[in-house]
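Data card: per-record layout.
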Amino acid sequence: MVAADRINGYNVFYVGKQDLEDAIPSAIWQSIVKKRIPQIVATEKEIDDIKSKIPDNQAIQSSNKLHPRLKALLLAKAEGQEALKRSLLKSSHKKGLN
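The structure for this 98-residue chain is written out next.
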């Protein structure tokens, strides 16, 4: 989604529902997860479901944006795999899944 406003004389363009990441196709997010964390499968539908819960045109807490919701999904899928969860928690902050 791309929207535009005029604010203080400037054209302002919005991409995605909340952030640029929302505009990235779910298939690309799925590919990123598959490459970074091959032990976990995140389907396009699951990622689409996350995106569908992100509201348009309103301020939300950062915990309700795409990255934290995707991270929560991945952590839930890693349940019972403590080493994988620790690795995900440790690396997600540094490498973009946070």
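Known properties of this structure: The helical segments are 26-36, 44-52, 66-77, 82-95. The two ends are 22 Å apart (CA to CA).

See the next section for split statistics.
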